[in-house]
Design brief:
flat; 2 strands; two-stranded antiparallel ribbon; mainly alpha
């Protein structure tokens, strides 16, 4: 697929996709005419990258984490940095808090929708 299609499928602007490419986070194939061609698996990867960026993880760290994005058990860290680990643990904690908050809000919406479904329509009461 072309960059515009990937941008549409992921909600990530083409300019940002080019930045991801510059950072080594995604690697499209180059056609003979110079156009980029993106594989289908990159849709999922781009969404994960966007989520990590939104969570405050810098691209240099995301690049190191790429094997983990594929759910691989063989992730190896050659030279673990204690400060980096601390930052990642902190970010993970913030993500957990956001997930909990979103779950609470989702559950509140569900309760409200269910209450709406149980309500007698005003036109039926008259």
């Amino acid at each position: 697929m072309r960059i515009g299609e990937l941008a549409q499928k992921t909600g990530v602007p083409a300019r940002m996709l080019r930045y991801y490419e510059e950072q080594g986070l995604i690697a499209p194939r180059r056609l003979q005419n110079g156009y980029r061609e993106y594989e289908d698996y990159l849709v999922h990867r781009v969404r994960k990258i966007r989520g990590l960026l939104d969570s405050g993880i810098p691209t240099r760290i995301i690049g190191d984490m790429l094997p983990c994005l594929n759910n691989t058990e063989a992730t190896v860290v050659a030279d673990p940095d204690p400060e980096l680990r601390e930052m990642l643990v902190e970010q993970r904690g913030k993500m957990t808090e956001r997930i909990s908050f979103l779950e609470q809000n989702r559950d509140a919406l569900t309760r409200y929708i269910e209450a709406m479904d149980r309500a007698v329509p005003a036109s039926a009461a008259s």
